[in-house]
Design a protein that fits this description.
Elements: E1 7-9, H1 11-17, H2 27-31, E2 34-39, E3 47-54, E4 66-69, E5 71-76, E6 85-90, H3 92-97, E7 106-113, E8 120-128
Antiparallel strand pairs: 1-2, 2-3, 3-4, 5-6, 6-7, 7-8
Length: about 140
């Protein structure tokens, strides 16, 4: 696999690139030494996964990888607890107008659990975005 396709994303850089993300919302993730490694495991670049790892040692996973068609990473404080959640979401524009349709269109919310020992990342919610899939696509 091309090493450029599999690289650690610093949360700040990812937040700055993705439209709609507010800069600085990833500060708690950086302070907890959590970054995401982006990968495109399929034959095309449509399906994108994000694996939470230690920023200081990307070989150490701190949660399970999650993915979505045309996935993008953003940070939002959804529960108003002062700590932003990581949101992996299919790009609405790319699913509707991209070269390939979306069949695995999702919005996945991840929560950072930083406590004693290594930080952990857990999935809070997974929502299938059926409105971004071709008509007649069965719900998973």
């Amino acid at each position: 696999m091309d090493q450029r396709a599999k690289r650690p994303l610093l949360p700040a850089a990812a937040a700055a690139i993705v439209a709609g993300c507010s800069p600085g919302l990833d500060a708690d993730w950086q302070a907890a030494d959590v970054c995401f490694v982006e990968d495109r495991p399929g034959a095309t670049s449509r399906y994108v996964t994000f694996a939470p790892v230690r920023c200081s040692d990307p070989a150490v996973a701190v949660g399970d990888p999650v993915g979505a068609d045309y996935g993008r990473l953003c940070y939002e404080d959804l529960d108003d607890d002062g700590t932003a959640e990581a949101v992996i979401e299919s790009s609405s524009w790319r699913c509707r107008f991209g070269a390939a349709p979306c069949y695995d269109a999702y919005r996945i919310v991840l929560k950072l659990s930083a406590g004693p020992g290594a930080p952990r990342v857990r999935e809070l919610e997974r929502t299938w975005l059926g409105e971004l899939t071709p008509p007649g696509t069965p719900r998973p």
